[in-house]
Structure formats: C-alpha cells, structure tokens
Amino acid sequence: MSVSRSCLCCVKYLMFVFNLIFWLGGCGLFGVGVWLSFTQAEFSSLPLSFPSLSAANLLLVAGGITMVTGFLGCLGALKEQRCLLVMFFVILLLLVLTEVTLVLVIHIFHDKLDSKAQDELKEGMKIYETEPGLKKSWDNVQKMFKCCGVTNKTDWYDVLNGTLPSSCCSVGKDQCDDGWSEPCYQKARQWLLANIPSVLVFGVCIGVVQILALVFSMLMYCQILCAEKHLD
C-alpha cells in the first residue's frame, strides 16, 4: 500500500469517528429538545418567545441539522466520494458560521431580544379571556413557577380591568387580590439557565468536533485528489 493510500485510510477513519460523534451529539441535542418540549407541553399555547419554548425549538432544529450533517459526513468518509465530501463541507461550514453569528447576535442584542419577547408575551395576554388554550397555558405557567405576569403582576391590570387571575395566587383561591411578586419571564429564564448548563457544555464540545470534522474533510478531499492523480 502506497504512502498516500495509507494516509487516506487514516484520515478516512478519523473523519468517520468524528462524524459519528457529531451525529450522536445531534441525537443528544434533538433528545433534549424533545424532552424540553414535553416538559413545556402544559403551556404550549404561549408565544414561541417564551424562554423555554424558544430553547426547545432551537434544540430540535439544531439537533436535526446536526444529525443529517453527521450522516452525510460518515457516508462521504466511507464511500470516499468527493461530491459528498464537498456537500458535507459546505453544509458544515454554513452551520458553524450560523452558530457563531447566532451566539454573537444573542450576546450583543440580548437586552433588545428580551424586551421584544416580553412585549410579544404581553400582547398575547390580551386574548387571555377569549382564548381557552392560551388561558390554560398562562394558568399552568403561573402555578408551576409561582409567578404573576410577564414582567410584573400589574401586567394583568389592563387585561382584567385591575384584577388578577386566580392562578397568580396559591391553589384553592377563587379570587386573587395580591398575587405572586416574581415575574414569569424572569422565573422561566432562571429555570432554563438552571437546567441547561450541561447542554451548553455539550454544545461547546459539539462545536469543537465540528471544527475537527471540517479540517478532516478538507484533508480527505486533498488525499482523494492526490490518490486519483497517482492512479492517472
């Protein structure tokens, strides 16, 4: 076996291993997204800007794309096909650039994004009395997190003519005069941050694997070109 063929085999199996880890990581992200979706099913009628709901959708999309990309990488490595390798490289490069852009946007504009999400939730509160699904979701959120309103319990005053929904108080009270003091947006965000750190660490590891997979796909493509030139 020639030296170039030996190098190609080495790069091939290394790329396969990294892409297998990448694919398994995608399965993990998708699984966490599914778990988060089921956990938040009781208030699924709320706008998607609600912290835990937006995180669940983000994980589902990221996990699905990662699984498909990892599969393409494994297939391209085993088949040694330049077309699959180029497709894998382009998709993975776009994915990495999108992730970096998303992280930067969230970091730079997090205050504006929070404000916009809160405004959207407050706007949705206006149909609390006319939309049974939304009413049930808000009641479940407030009972679960022991909170009231989006940013303050006074958010309900414009919606319910100066009163509070019964879910703003302890269970068993038909009329609520003085509800929970903590806002639901902040409580939901705290819950998410308390339950998601391991996923963030996992995401960083997946990011490292993505970079390595990009490098190995480039190396393998070059090795295939060299091997084909030697054959000619």
UniProtKB/TrEMBL annotation:
Signal peptide: none annotated. Pfam families: Tetraspanin (PF00335). The chain crosses the membrane at residues 12-38, 58-78, 85-109, 199-222. The keyword Acetylation does not apply. It is found in: Membrane. Its main location: membrane. Keywords: Disulfide bond, Membrane, Transmembrane, Transmembrane helix. One of its GO terms (cellular component) is plasma membrane. The keyword Transmembrane helix applies. It is a multi-pass membrane protein. It comes from the Eukaryota. Disulfide bonds join C148-C169. InterPro entries: Tetraspanin/Peripherin, Tetraspanin_animals, Tetraspanin_CS, Tetraspanin_EC2_sf. Belongs to the tetraspanin (TM4SF) family. This is Tetraspanin. It comes from Seriola lalandi dorsalis.
